[in-house]
Amino acid sequence: MGIFRKAYSVAGVVLMLQFLLQLYFIAAAATTIYSADDNSKSVYAAFKVADTYTGLHLLNAGVMYLTILALIICSFGSRYPWRTTILTAVLLIQILLQSVFAHTGVPVVGGLHGVNALIMIGLGGYLTGRNWAFRRPAEKAVSKP
Q1: Domain ranges, residue 75
Q2: Which end of the chain, N or C, is less surrounded by CB atoms within 10 Å?
Q3: Does residue 45 sit in helix, strand or coil?
Q4: What is the DSSP letter of 144?
Q5: Residue 28 CA: distances (Å) to CA of 5, 34, 75, 76, 78
Q6: Which pTM was predicted?
Q7: How far apart are alpha carbons 45 and 70 in whole angstroms?
């Protein structure tokens, strides 16, 4: 049971790093496009470079899916309360929704991709911090007679 709790904490940290990478990849893609000159060759070259970053964004999302599955397995193995296991499963539902939001082609729905990402970062951070397995045990206070 202790090893699953530690694995949950490690997977949570990995997930948080993956969130950071997601933000980096999409910001790098957007910055590349925004910095293009106002001519067709420059815009085409910028989109070609940005395509690499968006591909990495998509690839990282697939790895995040696997990390969240590992979190769910570790949550069961750790015998965490159902609340923790259910909130961890909510992350899985959210990452599946990310794919729907990103590929609808409707800007109003596509904007939910970013909002949902922020909620995922908050939930992932909460679950990782709340269930941190590497805390030092509290020292018992010595009472004076």
Answers
A1: 2-130
A2: C
A3: helix
A4: P
A5: 35, 10, 34, 37, 38
A6: 0.87
A7: 38
